[in-house]
Each structure stands twice: as structure tokens, then as C-alpha cells.
Amino acid sequence: MPFLTSPIAWITGIPEPTLRLLMTLGLAYPIARVYNQMYIRGKGPIVSAATVTERNMFILLAGLGLSLFFNGSTIYHSLITVAVSYGVLYLNERFMPQNRLYGAAAVWGFNAIYLLAGYYFTATDEYDVSWTMPQCILCLRLMGFGFDYYDGATSVVKVEGPEATKKAEEATDHQTTVRPTEKVKPPSNLPLSFASDTPLAILPDFSQVLAYCYFPSAFLVGPQFSFSLYRKWLSTTPLQEEGNAVAQEEAEKDQMRYVFRCLGLAVVYLAIQQGIGGNYPTSYLLTDEYASLGLLRRIWIFMVTGKFVYNKYIGVWMLTEGACAYFGISYEGKDGQGRHLFGGLANALPLQFETSTSIDHVIGSFNINTNLWVKYYVFKRLKFLGNKQLSQFGALAFLAIWHGFHINYFTTFFCEFSVTLCESVLRKRLLPTVQTYTKSNAIALVAWKVVAWCTCSASLHYCVVQFDLLKASKAFIAYKNVYFLGHFILLGIFLVDKFVLRPVVRTPKDKVKAN
Fold it and tell me: What is the pTM of this model?
């Protein structure tokens, strides 16, 4: 609703769409506080079916209110997609209950077409904050929900949960089943957002699905999580199971410490972005002034610019993570010291990201739950291709088209895919030699970590600049100003590995390790 935010934007100098985004994320905090006061603080661990319904209605109305604040009249886009997606699955359940593939495929197709049509009709040459931003989050949420419904037809093992959860599920005629992943990994090693109980044996009530899609702290920029987690959260009060006031107070203190930690990190990242990142816009890389600088300075500015492209995402994700922790949906039990943990829906791990020495570290610390979503609903479903790299390429291609039609989305993910392959080549070639020194020399180990951190950071920052520039013509100018150095380095590594160096001979010991 620009008429509410425009005056504040004019006073603060912050662009109105950005201000509306931050205010929507911030408003989730007081909503979470009200929710805690009404349904958590001082309540017992047993949750009745009536209370579950009341909680769900609170979340639904609060989420719809925030969506209306952000989207205004364009809220109808999300309402249409949720209603149609649920309607398709309902018809599938009613007329073809034994074959859920049609319903899941229809949900995927409809949401993909709707989102891409939105991108097509609203896209500009700039990175826009519009209704398509929450729509892309909703798109994945409904696609995942469709697959969960499909998986529920083939999963037959029931999960015995807490008594309160069991009663609530029986009251709403819900059944919970186990994903085949359970046979490979124990539940304790699976992420909270997509644990083993994601398949849906029976289509849930529409009101719960609608509230799940509009969860106040997650509908706008994520994080992604399964419907099963939402349903479980509605019907339990895990912090109330301690049974005494002292333990309850400690649990609440741990929760608030985590909330303020997330909020503090968000403020730091966003303040740095506003105060320093504003001096390094990607548009500057296209100017004659930038082109006239010395090469080393151009490279330095290029890398710093790429760093701030990532920086803004971490700030926003930390802001929404704090609100999720305040609601308590991210609660994942206690650690060995008895401290309550609320990082189950973390979408970014700032310390790990800032110190990453490999692409694997980055994947595990940046946009975590989206990566997990793609892993479970795309990457693993491409197993029939018979090649891990093809599956990985397919997953990255899906992520690219999910972001929109701009060609730079595809070139960015292809560039990052190339960096991943290049990293594997370097690891294969260099590690056997390097480890002879790093295992016996602490200084050599530190030096190797520093080199790995520098190359990993440089690769990421080099690749992501084109993501923010959107158009291929702009990316060409930016990379031309640094002589396409990164592209030539990647190409050189592949060519040397393929045609100059001898193939690496794997010993039987290496093969055993690989298996």
C-alpha cells in the first residue's frame, strides 16, 4: 500500500518498494508476540482440536493482512494460485485417488506458467520489488505441496508422534507418512524444514493450506518448509513441555536471545548495505569512469560490488529468520548443554558464508532452505538421468527459470556450475600434494585455507555480478572492463586438465573411499 509507505520513503530516502518490503518483514515481529501471548505463554502442552483451528485462523488472517499491505490489490494473484492448486488436488482426490501424479503435475504446470507469465508481463530492465517476489516463494511452496501429496500415495509407514500431535491429527482426519529418505538417513540428521514426514496421506483442510501459504514471517522471502512442519507446529507447544516455571523461563530466554541475535545481524547487514553497498552499485561497472581506472582497482571494485550483491540477501533473510524463531516454528529441540535451539529454518549462516573455502560451504550457508527444497523436489527426482552432474545441471536450470526470463539468470547459474566443476578439478589435482604439507604444518594449513577462501570468494563475486545486471549487454560491458579474466581462468583450468596434464589414476584405496 504505497499511500501508507510513500511519505516515510520520502522522509528517509529509502525507495518505497524496498521500504514496504522491510516494513512487511518487520511487522511479523509484533504479530509473533501477540501469537505467543495468546497461545503459548502460560499454556499447557496439550492442544485441543479447537485451539488448533483458532491458531490456524490467527495465522491465516495475519498472513493475509501482511500480504494485503505488501501487495495491495495484486493480492488476487496469490489467492488464485492457492485456490486453483488446491482445487486441482481436491478433484484428483475425489475422482482419481489411486493416481495422484495427474494432480501433482497439474499443480507444477499451473504454478510455473502463472509465475512465468507474471515475469513476462511485469519485467523491466531493473530488479523489481513487486507481487512476483512473494509469488515465486508461493510457487515453490505449492509445487512442494503437490509433490508431498503425490508422495503420500506411496508412503505407507506411519510416524508415531507425541500424543498431542496424534490427537490433533485424528481430530482433523490427517495422516502422516514417511518419505523413503528415512531409510537412508535417521530423522535426527534430516533438516527441520523437510524432515522425513513430508508426504501427505490425505489432502489437508483448505484453511490450513491457505494459512501455510501465507505464514506471516515466510510468505514474502521464505524460508521454504513443508506443510507437515506447519501442521505439527500448530498442534504442539514444545516449549511448554518442561513442566516447571524455571525451565519455562529459561526456554523463553533462549528464544529471545536467538530472536535478538537474528535481528541484530539483520540490522548490521542492512546498515552496511545502505551505508557502504550503495557506493558500489553494479551500474557503476558500466560507466566510462570505471573503465578509465587502473586494472587492479577495477578488479577490486568488481569483487566488492559482487560481495554486496550477496550482502543484501543475507540481511533480509536474517530479519525473517528472527520472526520465524519468535513464532517458534523453527524450534529444533535442545543441544548437549540443554540450551533450546531455534535455528531450524535458518536461510543463511553468516559466519560460515563469510569464511567459506568451497562452493559446498556456500551452498550449505546461503539460501539454505531453497537449496534443500531443490534438493528434495528437483535434484533427487532427476535420479533417472543416471548422472549426478546432469541432475545438478537440471536443478540449476530449474532455479534459473524460477527467477525469471532474464538471460543473466541462466548465465549466472551456468557460471556457478562451471566454478563447481572447476573446483572439483583443482581438488583432484592439488589436494594429494597439498595435504602432504598441511597435515604436518599448521602454517601451511592456514595458508591453504586463506588461498581457498580467496579463490572461493573471488569466484562467487565474479559470477554474481551478472545476476544483478539482468541484461546480457550490460554484463558484457562489465566483464569486458576486466577483460573477462574469470572466464579465461575457468577455461584455462579445464583445458589444462583435459589436454595437458595426465589423467589422475585412482588407486583401489581411493575407489573404496569414493564408495
Answer: 0.87
* Pair 142, 224: CB distance under 8 Å: no
Residue 213 structural domain: 47-237
For residue 312, give the nearest of 455, 450, 467, 192 by alpha carbon: 467
- Would you tell me the crossing angle of helices 101-122 and 132-151 to the nearest 10 degrees? 170
Task: Assess whether 226 and 275 both reside in one domain.
Answer: no
Q: How many CB atoms lie within 10 A of CB 318?
A: 23
Residue 326 lies in a domain: yes
Q: Determine the distance from the C-alpha atom of residue 357 to the mean position of all C-alpha atoms in its chain, rounded to a whole number.
A: 20
Q: Read off the pLDDT band of 16 (50, 70, 90).
A: confident
Q: What is the pLDDT of residues 168-215, one digit of tens each?
A: 334 333 344 444 444 444 444 678 899 888 999 999 999 999 999 999
Contacts of 452 (CB under 8 A, 6+ apart): 357, 358
For residue 22, the one-letter residue type is L
Dihedral (CA of 250, 253, 255, 257) sign? negative
Are 285 and 478 contacting, i.e. CB atoms less than 8 angstroms apart?
Answer: yes
Shared domain check, 164 and 278:
no
State which of 237, 259, 282 marks the end of a domain. Answer: 237
Angle formed by the axes of helices 227-234 and 163-171, nearest 10°? 100
Residue 379 falls inside a structural domain: yes
What pLDDT, on a 0 to 100 scale, did the predictor assign at position 498?
Answer: 85
Question: CA 463, 464, 469, 470 torsion: positive or negative?
Answer: positive
Residue 112's pLDDT band (cuts 50, 70, 90): very high
- What is the rounded distance in angstroms from the CA atom of residue 229 to the CA atom of residue 200? 12
Ranking 56-60, 301-305, 306-310, 362-366 by mean pLDDT, the lowest is 362-366
Q: Tell me the C-alpha to C-alpha distance, in Å, between residue 363 and each of 222, 258, 417.
A: 16, 23, 12
Question: What domain count does the chain have?
Answer: 2
Q: How confident is the model at residue 440 (pLDDT cuts 50, 70, 90)?
A: confident
Radius of gyration of the chain (CA): 24
Asked whether residue 317 falls in the same domain as residue 391, the answer is yes
Work out the average pLDDT over 107-125.
90
CA 20 to chain centre: 21
Domain-ending residue, one of 211, 237, 263:
237
Cβ burial of 397 (10 Å; 0-12, 13-18, 19+) is middle
Spatial separation of the C-alpha atoms in residues 67 and 122, rounded to whole Å:
19
Range name among 2-6, 254-258, 332-336, 463-467 with the lowest pLDDT average: 2-6
Please tell me the distance from the alpha carbon of residue 93 to that of residue 99, in angstroms, as a whole number: 9
The verdict on residue 28 lying in a domain is no
Joined together, the cell numbers standing for residue 121 give: 508481463
Report whether 481 contacts 285 (CB < 8 A).
yes
Q: Where is pLDDT greater, at 291 or 169? A: 291
